[in-house]
């Protein structure tokens, strides 16, 4: 049975309206474990509560875990789509607060680098499902693998998550350098996670921004920060988004505030790359 994307809090996905535009936001990082999946899950929940139709794509192919984080049990995953046995619309599952999730499989090393044919297949399938939502949030793996750079290049906004650890900064710089030099990306938003204060966040951001300015001649955009919050790992243990089970916790408040900002971001009118141009054109004309 073929499902399409849906409206809020339904047990099963239903046919949704077509969005006039789809804002594609990829969340990525140089270093692993800095909080990407939690950022995606919680921004998705908060954006949905703010009235947006949200689709989450777990693009951490081979090591996907957003379904586990949200306590979802998918029957099919991107593995089935890439194998050609299912369409993307078949694998969509409803998540908390009315979000929709496209789960990835875990433990499949062959998916860590998609072939050109697989990239094209995924792109055309994504164009089809993404046109019914306002925001497509993409959770990637960490690092500079071709999958990560592919999804960062295909999005309108690339959000790089960093933490105050020095290795997080050097790895984020390495990722930005690859995206800048090899994929001609110039715009990066930086979200600082796991910091004790706003001051720590801006100091952390400035270190990365200074390196990008000096060696790559680009200025990074400071997006904001999520505080280090004991409630967040507690929510992870419960397999729930922190915004769901501890809505008044410091991190939840920060996620809600960030989602409010994102909801106001203008959708770029001009494509930043040919891939995205094709993507957006197909979304508009389909
Ligand atoms: N703001 C925070 N406060 C406290 N702990 C946090 C915060 N953000 C993330 N964590 C901790 O970091 C862990 C890793 O988070 P998460 O899985 O979202 O990272 P990731 O970047 O997606 O990792 P990977 O690179 O493996 O995909 C969480 O399980 C949680 O324990
Ligand atoms: Mg992750």
Describe it.
This protein has 286 residues and is α/β, with parallel strands linked by helices. It has a single domain (34-266), classed as 3-Layer(aba) Sandwich (Rossmann fold), CATH 3.40.50.300. The chain contains 12 helices and 8 strands. It has helices at 36-49, 66-69, 78-82, 88-91, 116-130, 146-154, 166-183, 198-216, 231-237, 242-245, 250-264, 274-285, and strands at 23-29, 54-59, 93-94, 100-102, 135-142, 157-162, 189-195, 221-227. An 8-stranded mixed sheet has the order 3-4-2-5-1-6-7-8, with helices on both faces. Helix 1 (36-49) packs across helix 11 and helix 7 (166-183) packs parallel to helix 8 (198-216). The protein is globular and about 50 Å long. The model is unreliable at 1-17, 270-275 and 280-286 (pLDDT under 50). The chain binds adenosine-5'-triphosphate (ATP) and magnesium ion. Adenosine-5'-triphosphate (ATP) binds at residues 29, 32-38, 60, 141-142, 193-194, 226, 228-229, 232-233, 236, 251.
Features:
286 residues; alpha/beta; Rossmann fold; 12 helices; 44% helix; globular; binds adenosine-5'-triphosphate; binds magnesium ion
Walk me through the topology.
Layout: E1 23-29, H1 36-49, E2 54-59, H2 66-69, H3 78-82, H4 88-91, E3 93-94, E4 100-102, H5 116-130, E5 135-142, H6 146-154, E6 157-162, H7 166-183, E7 189-195, H8 198-216, E8 221-227, H9 231-237, H10 242-245, H11 250-264, H12 274-285
Parallel strand pairs: 1-5, 1-6, 2-4, 2-5, 6-7, 7-8
Antiparallel strand pairs: 3-4
The structure holds adenosine-5'-triphosphate and magnesium ion.
């Amino acid at each position: 049975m073929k499902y399409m994307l849906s409206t809020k809090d339904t047990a099963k996905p239903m046919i949704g309206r077509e969005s006039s535009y789809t804002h594609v936001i990829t969340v990525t990082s140089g270093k692993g474990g800095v909080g990407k999946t939690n950022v995606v899950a919680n921004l998705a929940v908060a954006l949905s509560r703010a009235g947006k139709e949200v689709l989450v794509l777990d693009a951490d192919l081979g090591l996907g875990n957003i379904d586990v984080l949200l306590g979802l049990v998918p029957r099919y995953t991107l593995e089935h789509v890439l194998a050609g046995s299912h369409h993307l619309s078949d694998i969509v599952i409803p998540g908390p607060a009315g979000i929709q999730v496209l789960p990835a499989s875990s433990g499949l090393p062959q998916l860590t680098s998609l072939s050109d044919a697989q990239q094209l297949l995924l792109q055309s399938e994504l164009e089809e499902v993404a046109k019914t939502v306002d925001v497509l949030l993409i959770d990637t793996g960490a690092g500079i693998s071709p999958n990560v750079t592919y999804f960062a290049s295909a999005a309108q906004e690339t959000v790089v998550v960093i933490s105050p650890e020095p290795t997080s900064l050097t790895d984020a710089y390495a990722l930005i350098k690859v995206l800048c030099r090899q994929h001609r990306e110039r715009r990066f938003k930086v979200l600082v996670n796991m910091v004790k204060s706003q001051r720590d966040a801006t100091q952390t951001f400035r270190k990365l921004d200074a390196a990008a300015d000096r060696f790559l001649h680009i200025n990074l955009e400071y997006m904001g920060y999520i505080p280090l919050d004991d409630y967040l790992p507690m929510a992870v243990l419960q397999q729930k988004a922190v915004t769901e089970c501890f809505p008044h916790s410091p991190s939840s408040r920060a996620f809600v505030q960030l989602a409010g900002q994102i909801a106001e971001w203008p959708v770029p009118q001009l494509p930043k790359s040919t891939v995205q141009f094709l993507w957006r054109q197909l979304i508009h004309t389909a």
